[in-house]
Recover the amino acids of this structure.
């Protein structure tokens, strides 16, 4: 039963990228918001708007980790935007 719950939750939060210990993913319930990506590692979390590229929320990450998250996000920005519009529909603005 627990396995089914874990699979259900993972299906609602598709992972787009794993890099340097960070998991970049979407919440399926976020489809009505502007394009963004969630990031987590250990007990820390962040939400990054993709246009313009800036943090919406940061919890637990240190300043150097925030810089690294923005660098990784910028490097993979096209990939994240393609994934966003592929999952949620619509066209890039």
């Amino acid at each position: 039963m627990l396995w089914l719950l874990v699979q259900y939750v993972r299906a609602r939060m598709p992972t787009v990228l794993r890099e340097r210990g960070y998991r970049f993913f979407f919440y399926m319930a976020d489809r009505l918001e502007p394009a963004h990506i969630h990031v987590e590692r250990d007990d820390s979390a962040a939400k990054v708007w993709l246009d313009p590229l800036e943090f919406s929320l940061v919890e637990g990450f240190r300043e150097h980790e925030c810089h690294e998250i923005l660098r990784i996000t910028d490097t993979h920005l096209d990939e994240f935007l393609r994934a966003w519009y592929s999952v949620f529909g619509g066209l890039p603005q």
